[in-house]
Amino acid sequence: MSHLIKSSTSSYIMLNKNILLLSLTISLLGITLGGNVLIWPMEGSHWLNIKILIDELIKKEHNVTVLVASGALFISPTSNSSLIFEIYKVPFGKERIEGVIKDFVLTWMENRPSPSTIWRFYQEIARVIKNFHILSREICDGVLKNQKLMDKLKKSKFDILISDPVFPCGDIVALKLGIPFMYSLRFSPASTVEKHCGKVPFPPSYVPAILSELTDQMSFTDRVRNFISYHLQDYMFDTLWKSWDSYYSEALGRPTTLCEIMGKAEIWLIRTYWDFEFPRPYLPNFEFVGGLHCKPAKPLPKVLWKYKGKKPATLGANTRLYDWIPQNDLLGHPKTKAFITHGGTNGIYEAIYHGVPMVGVPMFADQPDNIAHMKAKGAAVEVNINTMTSEDLLNALRTVINEPSYKENAMRLSKIHHDQPVKPLDRAVFWIEFVMRHKGAKHLRPAAHNLTWFQYHSLDVIGFLLACVATAIFLVTKCCLFSCRKFGKTGKKKKRE
Amino acid sequence: MSHLIKSSTSSYIMLNKNILLLSLTISLLGITLGGNVLIWPMEGSHWLNIKILIDELIKKEHNVTVLVASGALFISPTSNSSLIFEIYKVPFGKERIEGVIKDFVLTWMENRPSPSTIWRFYQEIARVIKNFHILSREICDGVLKNQKLMDKLKKSKFDILISDPVFPCGDIVALKLGIPFMYSLRFSPASTVEKHCGKVPFPPSYVPAILSELTDQMSFTDRVRNFISYHLQDYMFDTLWKSWDSYYSEALGRPTTLCEIMGKAEIWLIRTYWDFEFPRPYLPNFEFVGGLHCKPAKPLPKVLWKYKGKKPATLGANTRLYDWIPQNDLLGHPKTKAFITHGGTNGIYEAIYHGVPMVGVPMFADQPDNIAHMKAKGAAVEVNINTMTSEDLLNALRTVINEPSYKENAMRLSKIHHDQPVKPLDRAVFWIEFVMRHKGAKHLRPAAHNLTWFQYHSLDVIGFLLACVATAIFLVTKCCLFSCRKFGKTGKKKKRE
């Protein structure tokens, strides 16, 4: 049934073919020559993670510029020919960010959320988040209101901006510069950003809400808790992040919302994978690159075995103290039996990578959730940092070391992690380069972005169809009644006759 | 905050490390030595597509066995050392399958669905599908009720069964053999199988229903049509596929449903990709491998230019007739300007691969949909096979050849197709080998499979919360009324005093 239309000559143009093959090879090998990348980083462990991406981009001969506030805490600028730290002025020093982070950690640890304390927890944490937002706004002003910097950035002709959107601003900077942007994200509260701005469905019946410490195996009570968790966190997000709508509208010079702008991200790199996460729906512009920072362990050099400070008298002979340890190399050592961790995503991924079972002592943010995931997958035991005794810790350690299932499950997760068609770091870089090559990734963008929330949920269609049914029922009833009356009268008339 | 517990000695066991590295390398290179694969194929173009997978599996040194009914039409058995065609007896010959397929095509072409004829179309097509199901049941009986064959298959110790589930049975054969299975699928009516059995969300607001010829850009009327399409096709699937529930229950010896069994597929290979499909939600165990059969064009040999039969006198000098043409090589010829196609997925993918704009003359099944997709992406023009004149065809051809946007869009789709981290065929084979290596892919299976439909939609949770709210309102109202009465009486008493 298929026919081919050919032009008049059918000779081969070998040169054309070779050029086509070359460009195909370049495209297949994922080569993007000399890209110009702008980074909107976050503090702490977020910076450690995106630093790996930056190093890989530089290795692939891209030029990378990192926007750093003058009051940054962890980000230590060391520019060279292909890595530039563009430092902009903000009206505060390191101690301000340090103070807010400390407040955040301590508030969380003192008010760890549980069903009975949830409302108090949200109230306390809302106070800290408000402080974070005041800080973020000053950071954002530091770039957007610095016309000289913006002009310089515009002149640099960046191909892409990569933002860690745990707090806003990277996206609006990209929009003002007229360049595509993408995200590197662990999660947002209630997954609100992924759900409402990114349009990913999160069925509350089997996808545990962030911070709920629930798994994908939920009882009825769990599902009620999960359902409420989503709505509580959605509410929190709506109220606390709401003020960014007017900030973004002002910056853009037209009415907009934070969510509308965030929805313009070309690709969302999510810092987990199915070794860690419970399977759930997602969209083609979401890429799960958890563990992109992991690498094989290097041999441990002897000089490593140093420590600082006085050794406590009660310390056992088989415990050593170190001022700093190369965590990845130690986790990859064949004699490593277990990993006591606070449950940060970076550390957990190193343990998964090397197949080491864990004892989790979570403290704040996603850490309790992360340990809940590892417990559910049978690779960890948890101890409560607020109530634990040395006995508890010892028992937990004995359990993960002596019960073979923990090592087996850790090895199973490790096998899943290593058995992917493309390594997480390579996939992350591929999609960054893809966006640079194609000036976006519009073919992966769902049309849901063009719909209002009631259109998205087909509420207008359902309403219309219900109205049609109601009208039909009404008309049929009216007709019946009319007929009954008419035939009733005729009947009566006939009777009388 | 992280500590490491090490065992007493810290020396390296280099041998262990090397073995680990070797197994890691094997796992990273995706090597599965000597897998044993069972294929449950379908007829026609479906067979052409899965044949590519079979060839690749054999190239990777797996042994492949294809289950073929004695009355098969297109599948031509040619066994060798690593490819075995296991032929089983069915009580019909080629002409029966040929008859049903012809009936299917003609019925579709005579009753092409449109909003005004939709009900008649479904009635007519239901009749044909019933005939298909009678045939499928006889095919299924041919395997499941052939104890000698089942024993032989069991003894062969297959690692995996790959099924094209356009009609049922492959999955239940795998279950009876106790081996994992996966699907290669283009679509099911109303995506019912993917949605209800595979648990993929299909928001009717922006994901066009199969066979609707709609795109992801829908007006209100379109969305009403789309919403009704899903429900009509769901109803059709429910009524026509329902009878398999009892067949599967009987075969398995316990009450079950077709959907429950289909939901057990480890991986769903979907024969499209985002160059062709509109972005929509999916799950981690879905892999989009559209165009896995495409390959670079080979030079056209001179002996090719043969044709059979009498040349019509009206044929222009620039049109040639051939009995058979190597479509892929011609589409890849640099002088090819356009492709007149019936719109089968295989052919469209060859056009996308080589960046050739299309004139679509769709006939049945997914063909009108496929052309609607290509039209929406600006790479095709459609002509109606029932009403077209030679003028129409000529105009359509002139449009796609002379308006540069068609070639540009075809090239854009081609670039998207070629610019993937891993080629579709390699991804398909990777996941087949993954399931063999890990005896399944349970880490990708969403927990939604453990829920009933009302649990999945959180209807029990919503009901419970509404009941709580209603009770609270009732109690508060009662209290208020009680207080009013009481204080009212006290007031009256006071007044009297």
Automatic annotation (TrEMBL), chains A, B:
Compartment annotation: Membrane
Q: Matching Gene3D superfamilies, A to Z?
A: Glycogen Phosphorylase B
Which Gene Ontology cellular component annotation is one that this UniProt entry carries?
membrane
Residue runs in coiled coils = none
What would you give as a GO molecular function for this chain, any one? glucuronosyltransferase activity
Name the PROSITE patterns on file: UDPGT
Q: TM segments?
A: 461-484
Report what the protein is called: UDP-glucuronosyltransferase
- Report which gene this protein is encoded by: LOC102726664
